[in-house]
Design goal:
The complex is a heterodimer of chains A (364) and B (321).
Chain A lengths: L5 H26 L4 H13 L2 H26 L7 H18 L5 H30 L3 H23 L22 H5 L15 H18 L1 H11 L1 H6 L4 H18 L1 H9 L10 H11 L4 H24 L5 H16 L1 H19 L1
Chain B lengths: L2 H30 L7 H19 L2 H25 L4 H24 L31 H9 L4 H19 L1 H11 L1 H6 L4 H27 L11 H11 L4 H21 L2 E3 L2 E3 L1 H17 L20
Antiparallel strand pairs in B: 1-2
Helix pairs in contact in B: 1-5, 1-6, 1-9, 1-10, 1-11, 2-3, 2-4, 2-9, 2-10, 3-4, 3-9, 6-7, 6-11, 7-9, 10-11, 10-12, 11-12
Classes of the chains: A mainly alpha (364), B mainly alpha (321).
Amino acid sequence: MDKMPRWADVFLIPLISLLLAAIISALVIIAIGEDPVAAVKMMVNGALGSTYGWGYTLYYATNFIFTGLAVSVAFHARLFNIGGEGQAMLGGLGVAIACLYIPWPHWSLALLGAIFMSALMGAAWAAIPAYLQAKRGSHIVITTIMFNFIAAGLLNYLLVNVMRPTGSMDPATGKFPETTHLPTLHDLLTPLGIKFSKAAPANVSLVVALLACILVYYLIWRMKLGYEIRAQGHSESAAKYAGINPTRIIVISMLVSGGLAGAMAINNVMGEAERLVMNATEGAGFIGIAVALMGRNHPFGVLLAAILFGFLYQGGAELALWTDIPRELIVVIQALVILFTGALDNMVRMPLERIFLALRKERS
Amino acid sequence: MDFVTIIQVLDSTLRLATPLLLACLAGLFSERAGIFDIGLEGKMLAAAMFAGAFAAVSGSVWIGLLAGIGASLILSGLHGVTSITFRGNQLISGVAINFLAAGLTVLVAQSWFGQGGRTPSLMGGARFEPITLPFAETVKDVPIFGPIYHELISGHTILVYLALACVPATWWLLYRTRFGLRLRAVGEAPEAVDTAGVSVVGMRFAAVAICGVLCGIAGAYLATGLQAGFVKDMTAGRGFIALAALIFAKWRPWYALSATLLFGFLQAIAVRFQNIELFGFTIPVQFTESLPYILTVVILAGFVGKAIPPRAGGQPYVKEN
């Protein structure tokens, strides 16, 4: 019998962890001599108070949905993929190749091509650590960290020496052609009679991200492969006994994970920048860790957590613009969320379990 | 490459390898006791910021060093509480600590000094000054040996020599003392240590504390020895290179010295030469910079000698009833 009702596990624990992270963040804001209530007001106003704010919030959220799903798929197989950052960088390379070297007649076809190329590159970047984990027992956390740095070096080289247009000093590719520009939420919603800010970068990639949530849900909970991934995550020896090949599961779940992280590039590279620049991912691969932990590895949870982090990102940018609070406040909040929902899970869980056990005894 | 250039490159190798060596030995203590630590980077960063801030305000580099060690120890304590007391995931805790340090250092430095997340430039007694070893000036003009002694061996800050001294000290502590035997045992078979009546929790906290002190020195060296003051994100991945060196060294102290010297050499080459022409090929600087990571993956893959981590690494210890 479970020690706790399901709702407590799914909602109460993340909520308490979030609350703890919020309280400490507030203390940090007080410690640097600012007003936390005013800060929250400004963040809400800046991120959710206008369609412009929403456009940025949803733009960031789209990135985090992809990377959050990537981390959570790997988590289901009990693999910790810290390499989302590098995989997303390689995804950007895939998008750049698709957009620059193939003449697309229409954005919709370009989008399909870019999704394919970015997912392919992201998956390829995850494939080597996956193979090494499955076949040689090399710890996937260490190899994916190393691959993040190698990816940064590779992209740096390609942007400076190979893909930079002649005559340009900027280490970036040239602008993608007009036919590959994705419609923004403004373009999509105006025909429906909804007014949306023209300047905000949220685009059709958000729809792709939502579809990815549904697909991941089907994969993990409705397909045989997903069942095998979860079985492997619960107990490798039991899964092996049931005839599940661990090598196959490790490699497939990492390929899916890397593909999802890579596909993020359709949003930031194709949708927003419309060219590949240095450090295009801006740490979104790492935020995926916080998002997956907070979302309890469920696509719906990931969606909610991604929107929350999108709000924090846009709100934090507003704070940095109007107050003396630097953008790095968001990094602190992100760290606290990872700490409380990931590493200190037992600290929140153990007292709660005791309370629920005591309540149950009283009743019986 | 002439003789003078070689001496200069080796000289900067030694300087750049020092923080890597200290952080690598820090990780060695922690991981040998069964506590994975990917938070080396964060601890160094926090130490660098606090060392820079306290040295700037007090004017004394030693107070800065102590403050750096203190900051690093606090984060070590956090890692200990999450991974030993609450048996949390050590890797996730390390990731959290890295981000906590990355954010808080800028926040605190901005709030204290208002210089965009950096600490004021350090001068005079607020920095570690180079030490001239005895007779360095006298033998300066002796051919070959003179420059090697005067330029390469002499003229570093005290922390460089301290880091080098830490290598035999670590070896002695781990392999020649009872404490070291227990520390290694706790990382291989904690249940055996427990049966012998030694506290697994105590040993692991001790190892994590040593790790904190060494990371603190490494961070303080960055802000007060290698450079004059803290700047945002100044560790620049050194904690991860140290982690790579630790695997490269297969968790052994003397190998840690050679691994960090190799990686320090690669950094020195990258800083000095940018792209290198070798046998008609151009080796891009990005490749030299990525080489530590590539080498580590090759070692991890077991194609060139196998790196086997401590057996109980990463697993929280649960006492039997």
